[in-house]
Amino acid sequence: MSTRNRVKYIHEGKFVAEVAVELIEDESAWSPYLSLDDAEKLEDVRAALARGDVGTASKQARVYTLQPVAASR
After folding, report:
1. What own/partner pairs with CB < 8 Å and gap ≥ 24 does 54-57 have?
2. pLDDT digits over 8-47, tens only?
3. For residue 32, what is the DSSP state?
4. Predicted local distance difference test score (pLDDT) of residue 42
């Protein structure tokens, strides 16, 4: 079994969070997969962003706001 670090992105409303997780690789058909702790971390960040609680989300992730860009002709 081996692990590798990756960044997962969560988009919720006008926010995007960059969450560091560890993917677990082994010989099973489910590989690669997340640990339960990392899966819960992703869900906690998503829930915090959904309710607009950027402070809580930013404790576990880097949080960005999205802004629309006006197209020029």
Report:
1. 54/15, 57/15, 57/17
2. 999 999 999 999 999 999 998 888 999 999 999 999 999 9
3. S
4. 98
